[in-house]
Amino acid sequence: MNANSETRLAASLVEQSAIVTRTGWLAVLAVTLGIFSLMTSELLPVGLLTPISSALAVSEGTAGLMVTVPGLLAGISAPVITVSAARVDRRVLLAVLTGLMAVANLVSAIAPNFIVVLVARLAIGVSVGGFWAIAGGLAVRLVPDRHVARATAVIFGGVSTASVVGIPAGTLIGDFGGWRTAFAAVGILGLVAVAALLTLVPPLPSTRSVTFGALPALLRGNKGVRIGVLITFLLVTGHFTAYTFIRPVLHDTAGIDSGAIGALLMAYGVAGVAGNFVAGSRVSRHVRGTLLLISIALAAVMALFALPGHGPVSGTAVLVAWGLAYGAVSVSLQTWMLQAAPDAGDTASSLFVAAFNLSIALGALIGGLAADGIATTAVLWVAGSLALLTALTTKRL
Question: What is the domain class of 19-395 according to CATH?
Answer without folding.
Answer: mainly alpha
